[in-house]
Specification:
Order of helices and strands: HEEHHEEHHEEEEEEH
Number of helices: 6
Helix content: 25-40%
Strand order of the largest sheet: 1-2-3-4-8-7-6-5
Keywords: Signal
Structural class: alpha+beta
Protein name: Lipoprotein
Radius of gyration: 36 Å
Number of strands: 10
Shape: globular
């Protein structure tokens, strides 16, 4: 009988030990969960009408051999390229450039090489733009801005918004040379603006008046022309250079 009593005590101790393990697990399961952190992320920016694209263009070559231009002492330029983005474009005719396109430009402005939503809203596939300023060894200087756009077809290019805008300017001069159509605005004998439609490509060229430093209202430029702007022959050369160097390399 003593032996059975001893075994009963041992069994009871074992049961108590097992019960203790279960009780510990229950206590652990009731501990509070670790709180999770929430991170506030800024909302995604809406897609833009245009996006930047790389452009490999030797702008310095555009002024080689220009009529009426002496030896170049220094030259600086900005170059930018854009293509159609995924976002919506502003409606045609609403850009700031559209309201000032008929007027001559004095000095430089980043807006002259900014992407123009008007043209992309009308179907343009890409834009290449530059602003150029040249100082010559004689102390004279000149500047110009140029932009080209590629459209899906010649019909789309002919209907580009800037064609209608410039055609409506006062004293505009139109001409046709082979397959090219031009609209020009003049300052004396020199064009301060030329718009050229050549097949599916559109070129907007602006000859910029350069303001003399420290002389408010005084305009300096090329001594070879009365207006100080590039001559008509020089604009012809620049038109050919820009259309030849920005149009053929892409479909």
């Amino acid at each position: 009988m003593q032996l059975f009593r001893g075994l009963s005590v041992i069994a009871a101790v074992a049961v108590l030990a097992l019960t203790g393990c279960v009780s510990t697990a229950e206590l652990e399961s009731e501990t509070s969960p670790t709180p999770t952190r929430t991170v506030d992320r800024p909302p995604a920016e809406p897609a833009s009408c245009t996006r930047e694209r790389s452009v490999d263009l030797t702008v310095a070559n555009s002024t080689d051999g220009l009529p009426g231009v002496d030896e170049v002492a220094s030259m600086e330029w900005t170059l930018a390229g854009y293509e159609r983005g995924e976002g919506a474009c502003a409606p045609e005719g609403t850009s700031e450039s559209a309201t000032t396109v008929c007027s001559p430009v004095i000095g430089d402005s980043p807006a002259l090489s900014a992407p123009l939503d008007d043209m992309f809203a009308a179907g343009s596939l890409r834009q290449t733009s530059a602003r150029v300023r040249v100082d010559m060894t004689t102390g004279a200087e000149f500047a110009y801005a140029a932009s080209t756009w590629r459209f899906p077809s010649a019909a789309d290019a002919a209907a580009a918004p800037f064609v209608g805008l410039i055609a409506a300017c006062d004293d505009v001069v139109t001409s046709t040379d082979d397959d090219r159509r031009r609209w020009e605005l003049y300052d004396g004998d020199e064009p301060h603006l030329r718009l050229t439609v050549d097949g599916a490509d559109v070129l907007l060229f602006r000859s910029l008046s350069v303001a003399a430093e420290g002389e408010e209202g005084e305009i300096i430029g090329l001594p070879s022309t009365r207006s100080g702007l590039l001559s008509l022959a020089a604009v012809d050369d620049l038109e050919e250079w820009w259309l030849s160097n920005t149009a053929p390399d892409e479909p």
